[in-house]
Backbone:
C-alpha cells in the first residue's frame, strides 16, 4: 500500500522539538504532517528520557528521605521494593503524557505518520511504516530527528548486562554491583535511582570532576555529599571489559584506577549522545550534515537548503528538550513568515541528582575564560532557615554578577529543589536584571528560593542574614 | 583627613571654552564662589567660581587653554577642614557600598583628570558635544595607531547636516587604538581613540603631581562622576561588527521587537532605568529612522509625507549627443538636495512679490559708510543689514511668520525670539548661518557679525550650532541681478524672503514721475500657516520700513 500526502510543513521526529514545531506551525495556520518512528509522540524525552527518569528519581527520593527520617525520630523500616509495580507506575506516567500529546495533535489537526522518514529530495520525504510506504511532498521541512546514545567500541555492547539510559529505565533488575560509565547528568541520575533501590554504584569519569560543564565548587558540594553513596573514580577511564559468566570484569586506567580488574553485575554506559543527522538521508535533499552528524543552521534554524529547517539535538549542544522547544517555535514562526530568530541569552542546565545541581548563564569558569569582570556572591544554605529545617544544609546559591553594572550574568544552585529555583535566575539574565533588581524583589520567607535574593544582597552589601563583608565602618 | 578639594569645570553651556584670565595664583586664599579663572564661550565670558572657601593649592590651566566641562582646573585646600569633613564622616551606607573597593575610584580618577598623575595612562577620547542630537558621519580619520598627537590635534572629521568639523584630541599622547573608520556614524560620547597620555607632556602641570587625588574624600569622587558618565554611552558605537547581545540592556521581548523592525539595538539609546532599552525607545528609533531624509535619489523621489509617486525617469546616455563630463555633487548639495526637495513637495508654497523704495535708506547707508571708514571700524554697512532689521520688525508685527507647525500639524509654535538665517553662497555650496536676536542688535553690531559669518562660511568653518535655530530666512541675490525669484521655504520655518537687484524706476508721486531706487522682494510662505492677505500685509509693512527706517524706532 502506498500513500501520497501533500503538505505545507513536514516535521521529522516527534520529540519535544518536533511536536512543538508541528503544533506551533499548525496554530499559525499551516498544514502540518508529523513523522515519528515511535508508536507514541514525545520522543526520547517522554518515552525513554527526562520524564521516566524523573518518575524513578521520585521513587529514589522518597526512599532516601524515609531513611533520613530515622535520625529525626521517625523510623519506617526497610522498604519493600516491587520492581514490576514501580515499572508500571513509570509507564503510567509516560502513557499519561504521550496520550495527552496524541490528543492535542488531533485537536490541532496535525496528521501523524508513523514510520522512519527519509528525504528523497528537497521536496519529498518517504516514510517506511508498518503499513507500507508514504510519500510526503512538502513546501517546508523541519528536521527534528534528535540524538542517540554513544556506544563505546571496547565494550561488549551486545551483552545484556551492558545497558544504556534506555535500558536502565527499563528497570529489569537491581544489580548488586553496578558501574556507571560517565559522570555526567544522565549517569548520575540513573546511579541515584539504582543506589536508592539497593545497588552498590561506582561512577567512573575521565575528567577531574563530575558534570564537567558545571563549576567546580558546585560539583564539589555534590561529590562530598555522595561520597558514601557512590564509589567515585575521577580522572579514570575504562580500557577493557571482559564479559564472563559471573559478571563483567572491568579494567581501569588513570589516577584513581583500582589496580585489579573489578567485577560488576551491570554496566550503564552514559558517556553522551550523538546527533542523528546521518539517519534521515539529508544529503538527498542537499542538506549538509557534518562528520559527527550535526546539521548546521542559521539563527532562523534554516539549513543550507532554504525550505528545510532543523532544530533540537541535531543542530548542536546543549542537547536539551527546552532548547529544542524554543528552536521549534522559531522555526515554525519563520516558516509562517515571522521575522523571529533564536536569540536566547541563556539556556539552563539541571542535574536532577541528590542534591540537585542547576546552573544558567555564564559559569565562573566561563567568565574567567572570557575575561569578564565579574563578582561572585555565594549564599551558603547553612544560613537558610528552610534548609536547616529540612536537614539539608549542604547546598549553596551562587550568583555571578558583572562587577561594574551588577548585571546578573549567571548563577548556579546546588541543593534540594535547585532545579525548581533556577527559573528566577534565567529570567534575571534574560531581562538584564541587576543585583539591585533581584535584591529588592521580596522573596518569601522561609524558602530556599530566598537565597537568590540574599545572594544579590551580598553583592549589594545590604545582607543582614550573614556577616556583611561590605559593611561600612563608622569613622570616629 | 582629606581636605583637598578638586576644582572641576562646571557646565559651561558649550563644548569647549577658552581660558582668558587667571584671577588667582597658587597660595592665594579665596572665598567660596569667587572666580578662579575667566573663560570665554562663543556667547559670553564667565568666571568659574571656587566651589568652597580655602587656599588654592594647585592650578592646572593657563591663559589660552581650552577647557570643557569636567576638566580639572586645580585643587583647593578647604578652609577650616571640619566643615567639609562632616559629610565624609557621615557616610550614607548605600552609595558608599556601591563603590566599595577603594582602589576602583582611585584608578578611575586619573582617567578623568590625567594631568594630575605621573606615568602614562591610557584614556578614552570621545566625541564632544557637536550640536547634533543624532548621529553624524565620519568622513575622514586623520590619525593612525602609533601617531603622537598634541592636545587639540584633529582626530577625525565629521559631517553634520550642514557643516564639517574636526574632533580635537582632549589630551596629548600616543594613539593606542583607533575605534572609528571613515563611513561610521558617531554621536556625542562615542569613543574615538584610546590615547596613551604621557603625562609629562602637557605643559600646564609644572607643579609636582599632587598626592591629593589618591586621598580623595567621597565628595571628590562624586564630583568626578559626571566625567565618567560622559564616557558611558560608548557601547553604542556602531562600528563594532561583533554584536554581543549580552551588552545590550533589554528584555527578550524588546530584542524580538527590534528584530521584527530590523533595528540594530546597539544603535538604540535606552531611556529606561539605568539606560535600559524600552519598547518606546525602539519605536522612537524606528520613527526617527523613517523620518530622517536619506541622501539617495530614490528616497528623494519617494520621500515626502504624501508618498509621492513619480514615474521614474529613464536613464539617458547623454554622450550620444556630444561630449560630457560627470562631476560629483558637492557634499553640501548632496545633503541639502533631499531637504530642498522635501520642502518643495511637502509645503504648499505661494510667493508674494513687492517692491521697497530704498532711495532714502541707501543714501543714509552711504553716508554712514563714509563715517565707518573714517572711524576705521573695519566693516561696511550693507543693504542686507537694513533688510534684516526691517524683517525683524515685520516678524514682531506679524508673529505668525515667526512660527513653526507642530509635528502633528495640530498647532502652531510661536517663537519669542528673532533669529534670522542668511543664505550665503560659498565655493562649496549654499549655507545658511543664523544671526541671533536681530531685533536686539544695532546696525553696526549686525554689520560686524555678518562680516564674520560670511568669512566663516566661505572658509567652511561654520559649526552646526551656527546654522540652527533660525526663524526666518533671507536669500539675497541683489548683488548679482534678476528681477524676482521664488525661494523655497526653509522648513520648519514658514517663510523666506528673496531679494533681487534694486533698480532706479520712475514712480508717480501724484504730480510727476520721480526717480526712486526700488528693491524687488519675493517672499515665499507656507500657505498652511499664512494667508495671502497676511502675506501681502507683511511685505507691505516690510517695504514700508525699508522706505523709511525711522519707523524702526516707532
Residues:
Amino acid at each position: 500500500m502506498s500513500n501520497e500526502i501533500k503538505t505545507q510543513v513536514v516535521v521529522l521526529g516527534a520529540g519535544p522539538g518536533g511536536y512543538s514545531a508541528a503544533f506551533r506551525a499548525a496554530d499559525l495556520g499551516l498544514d502540518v504532517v508529523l513523522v515519528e518512528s515511535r508508536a507514541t509522540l514525545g520522543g526520547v524525552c517522554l518515552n525513554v528520557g527526562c520524564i521516566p527518569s524523573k518518575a524513578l528519581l521520585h521513587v529514589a527520593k522518597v526512599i532516601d528521605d524515609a531513611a533520613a527520617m530515622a535520625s529525626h525520630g521517625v523510623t519506617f523500616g526497610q522498604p519493600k521494593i516491587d520492581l514490576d509495580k514501580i515499572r508500571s507506575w513509570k509507564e503510567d506516567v509516560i502513557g499519561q503524557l504521550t496520550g495527552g500529546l496524541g490528543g492535542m495533535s488531533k485537536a490541532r489537526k496535525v496528521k501523524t505518520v508513523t514510520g522512519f522518514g527519509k528525504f528523497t529530495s528537497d521536496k519529498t520525504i518517504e516514510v517506511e511504516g508498518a503499513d507500507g510506504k508514504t510519500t510526503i511532498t512538502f513546501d517546508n521541512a523541519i528536521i527534528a530527528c534528535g540524538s542517540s546514545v554513544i556506544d563505546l567500541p571496547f565494550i561488549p555492547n551486545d551483552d545484556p548486562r551492558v545497558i544504556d539510559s534506555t535500558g536502565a529505565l527499563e528497570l529489569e533488575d537491581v544489580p548488586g554491583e553496578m558501574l556507571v560509565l560517565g559522570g555526567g547528568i544522565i549517569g548520575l541520575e540513573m546511579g541515584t535511582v539504582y543506589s536508592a533501590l539497593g545497588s552498590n554504584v561506582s561512577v567512573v569519569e575521565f575528567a577531574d570532576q563530575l558534570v564537567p560543564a558545571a563549576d567546580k565548587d558546585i560539583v564539589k558540594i555534590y561529590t562530598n555529599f555522595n561520597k558514601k553513596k557512590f564509589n567515585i573514580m575521577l580522572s579514570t577511564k575504562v580500557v577493557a571489559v571482559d564479559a564472563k559468566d559471573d559478571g563483567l570484569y572491568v579494567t581501569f586506567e588513570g589516577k584513581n584506577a583500582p589496580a585489579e580488574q573489578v567485577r560488576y553485575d551491570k554496566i550503564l554506559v552514559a558517556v553522551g549522545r550523538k546527533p542523528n543527522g546521518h539517519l534521515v538521508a539529508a544529503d538527498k535533499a542537499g542538506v549538509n550534515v557534518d562528520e559527527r552528524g550535526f546539521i548546521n543552521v542559521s539563527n532562523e534554524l534554516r539549513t543550507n537548503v532554504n525550505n528545510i529547517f532543523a532544530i533540537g539535538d541535531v543542530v548542536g549542544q546543549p542537547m536539551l528538550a527546552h532548547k529544542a522547544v524554543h528552536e521549534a517555535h522559531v522555526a515554525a514562526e519563520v516558516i509562517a513568515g515571522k521575522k523571529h530568530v533564536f536569540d536566547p541569552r541563556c539556556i539552563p542546565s539541571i542535574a536532577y541528582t541528590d542534591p540537585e545541581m542547576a546552573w544558567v548563564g555564564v559559569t565562573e569558569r566561563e567568565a574567567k575564560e572570557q575575561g569578564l569582570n565579574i563578582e561572585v556572591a555565594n549564599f551558603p544554605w547553612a544560613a537558610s532557615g528552610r534548609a536547616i529545617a529540612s536537614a539539608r544544609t549542604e547546598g549553596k546559591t551562587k550568583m555571578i554578577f558583572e562587577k561594574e553594572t551588577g548585571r546578573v550574568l549567571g548563577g548556579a544552585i546546588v541543593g534540594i529543589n535547585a532545579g525548581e529555583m533556577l527559573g528566577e535566575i534565567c529570567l534575571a539574565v534574560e531581562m538584564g536584571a541587576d543585583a539591585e533588581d533581584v535584591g529588592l524583589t521580596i522573596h518569601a520567607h522561609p524558602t530556599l528560593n530566598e537565597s537568590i535574593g540574599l545572594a544579590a544582597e551580598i553583592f549589594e552589601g545590604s545582607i543582614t542574614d550573614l556577616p556583611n563583608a561590605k559593611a561600612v565602618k563608622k569613622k570616629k | 583627613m582629606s581636605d583637598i578639594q578638586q576644582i572641576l569645570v562646571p557646565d559651561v553651556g558649550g563644548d569647549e571654552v577658552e581660558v582668558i584670565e587667571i584671577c588667582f595664583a597658587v597660595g592665594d586664599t579665596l572665598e567660596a564662589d569667587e572666580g578662579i579663572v575667566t573663560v570665554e564661550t562663543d556667547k559670553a565670558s564667565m568666571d568659574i567660581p571656587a566651589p568652597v572657601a580655602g587656599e588654592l593649592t594647585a592650578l592646572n590651566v593657563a591663559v589660552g587653554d581650552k577647557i570643557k566641562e569636567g576638566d580639572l582646573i586645580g585643587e583647593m585646600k578647604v578652609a577650616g577642614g571640619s566643615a567639609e569633613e562632616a559629610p565624609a564622616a557621615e557616610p550614607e551606607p548605600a552609595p558608599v557600598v556601591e563603590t566599595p573597593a577603594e582602589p576602583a575610584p582611585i584608578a578611575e580618577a586619573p582617567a578623568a583628570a590625567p594631568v594630575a598623575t605621573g606615568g602614562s595612562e591610557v584614556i578614552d577620547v570621545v566625541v564632544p558635544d557637536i550640536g547634533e542630537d543624532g548621529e553624524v558621519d565620519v568622513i575622514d580619520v586623520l590619525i593612525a595607531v602609533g601617531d603622537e598627537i598634541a592636545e587639540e590635534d584633529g582626530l577625525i572629521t565629521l559631517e553634520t547636516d550642514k557643516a564639517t568639523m574636526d574632533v580635537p584630541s582632549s589630551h596629548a599622547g600616543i594613539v593606542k587604538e583607533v575605534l572609528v573608520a571613515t563611513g561610521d556614524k558617531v554621536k556625542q560620547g562615542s569613543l574615538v581613540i584610546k590615547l596613551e597620555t604621557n603625562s609629562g607632556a602637557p605643559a600646564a602641570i609644572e607643579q609636582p603631581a599632587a598626592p591629593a587625588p589618591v586621598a580623595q574624600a567621597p565628595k571628590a569622587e562624586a564630583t568626578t562622576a559626571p566625567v565618567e558618565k560622559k564616557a558611558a554611552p560608548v557601547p553604542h558605537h556602531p562600528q563594532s561588527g561583533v554584536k554581543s547581545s549580552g551588552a545590550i540592556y533589554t528584555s527578550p521581548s524588546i530584542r524580538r521587537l527590534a528584530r521584527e523592525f530590523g533595528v540594530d539595538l546597539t544603535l538604540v539609546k535606552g531611556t529606561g532605568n539605568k539606560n535600559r532599552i524600552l519598547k518606546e525607545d525602539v519605536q522612537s528609533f524606528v520613527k526617527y529612522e523613517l523620518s530622517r531624509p536619506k541622501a539617495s535619489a530614490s528616497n528623494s523621489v519617494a520621500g515626502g509625507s504624501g508618498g509621492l509617486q513619480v514615474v521614474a525617469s529613464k536613464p539617458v546616455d547623454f554622450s550620444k549627443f556630444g561630449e560630457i563630463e560627470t562631476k560629483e555633487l558637492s557634499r553640501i548639495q548632496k545633503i541639502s538636495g533631499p531637504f530642498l526637495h522635501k520642502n518643495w513637495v511637502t509645503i504648499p508654497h505661494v510667493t508674494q512679490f513687492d517692491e521697497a523704495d530704498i532711495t532714502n535708506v541707501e543714501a543714509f547707508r552711504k553716508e554712514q559708510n563714509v563715517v565707518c571708514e573714517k572711524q576705521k571700524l573695519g566693516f561696511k554697512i550693507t543693504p542686507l543689514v537694513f533688510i534684516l532689521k526691517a524683517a525683524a520688525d515685520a516678524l514682531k508685527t506679524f508673529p505668525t511668520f515667526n512660527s513653526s507647525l507642530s509635528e502633528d500639524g495640530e498647532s502652531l509654535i510661536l517663537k519669542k525670539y528673532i533669529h534670522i538665517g542668511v543664505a550665503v553662497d560659498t565655493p562649496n555650496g549654499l549655507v545658511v548661518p543664523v544671526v541671533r536676536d536681530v531685533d536686539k542688535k544695532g546696525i553696526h553690531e549686525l554689520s560686524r557679525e555678518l562680516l564674520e559669518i560670511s568669512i566663516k562660511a566661505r572658509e567652511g568653518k561654520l559649526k552646526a550650532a551656527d546654522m540652527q535655530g533660525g526663524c526666518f530666512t533671507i536669500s539675497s541675490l541683489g548683488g548679482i541681478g534678476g528681477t524676482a525669484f521664488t525661494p523655497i521655504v526653509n522648513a520648519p520655518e514658514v517663510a523666506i524672503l528673496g531679494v533681487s537687484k534694486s533698480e532706479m524706476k520712475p514712480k508717480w508721486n501724484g504730480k510727476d514721475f520721480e526717480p526712486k531706487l526700488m528693491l524687488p522682494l519675493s517672499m515665499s510662505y507656507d500657505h498652511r500657516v499664512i494667508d495671502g492677505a497676511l502675506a501681502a500685509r507683511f511685505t507691505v509693512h516690510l517695504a514700508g520700513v525699508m522706505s523709511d527706517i525711522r519707523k524702526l524706532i516707532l
The interface with chain B takes residues 338-341, 343-345, 405, 407, 409, 430-432, 434, 460-462, 470, 472, 474-475 of chain A (CB under 8 Å).
